[in-house]
Design a protein that fits this description.
The protein is mainly beta. The protein is built from two helices and 22 strands. Helix content is 3%, strand content 35%. Strands 5, 6, 7, 12 and 13 form a five-stranded antiparallel beta sheet that branches. The protein has a four-stranded antiparallel beta sheet with strand order 14-20-17-18, with no helix packed on it. Strands 1-2-11 form a three-stranded antiparallel beta sheet, with no helix packed on it.
Length: 368
Amino acid sequence: MNLRAAALALLVAACQGGKQPGGDAGNGTPDSAVAPDAPGPPADAVVADADTRPLPDLTIGGDRLRVDLSVDVKDFATDACELDPQEDCIGGPGARTLLRFAVETPNIGNADLLLGTPSDSNENFVYSACHDHYHYEGYAGFALVDGSETVAAGHKQAFCLLDSERYIDDPSVATDGMYWCGYQGIQRGWSDVYHTRLGCQFIDVTGVAPGSYLLRVVLNQAETLEELSYDNNQIEVPVTVGDPDLLTPTEDCPADLEARVTRGSHRECGWTLQQTFDCTPGRELRVGCSTCNGIGSCTGDPMIRVCDPAHPGGNCTEPGALGYNDDSCSECPRVKDIDCPASGQVAVYVGAAELGQDYGCNLEIREL
């Protein structure tokens, strides 16, 4: 194991049906949450190099958890899958305040984690009638805790496990993804990432009192998947319910984040509200700074999010955005096929695709 891999092993998913290797597979003022500087890694997170058994070893990427942490408000219908007994991840229909976060689960072991092809005959999987596809059940559990008390809990999420990202940069680690939702697993040295925009990747914190809590994520709690170690399957990240910083993605990113996790439009920090445009409610819009698409121009490598400034709290999380884009052609972004909201305005946030890099984004908006 090289030095980078050993350091990453100190930290502690997934897609919806049909994802290919390497992919992602309310009303009133919402609560919010903010993570402070990085917590220390769990004291039991180190797996001894001497253990050479051919087994996977799952852990949790703490940097990913912190950089994609945000609060969103969403309306749910009475027949939403989130209310289905198999999902059970919101407290009721209507406007719910959601603490959203991404979960990255690297396999730092000595062998692949293999689940195989989802089917009735594969005991690893449970069929979800609401989603009309199979899940691996009980992979991760989420909780917002205050001391020994669980204040709010997330459903033990049903994941599709796959090779989302190459996690360890080592010649012995495969350079191409192998597992996907049709044949599930995580290669040694790769990680599965379950992004915030996917179903039930949150905790419903509607009605939770403002204050300081811990966000707890636990993997493979029933130990149904055999691993080299179960001691590195839990992490806790401090969050503050009621702090407005993560109602928008404009706060500074923590300085100690691994660069790999800050690249891309999923990042919930390091953005700038560049411009607010008026538009005709219901009209289709295109927004961009993309010379090759004939709408604005850019320098460097920017990315954009387009949001409704009248969205509860004014927030612009990735799941709450009307649209977002990193590269439409070359390195210039464009968002298309969105409708002007009832507010008659869109707010456009801009950020560097590579955190800290210089960029320019000459925005334009077009009604079709």
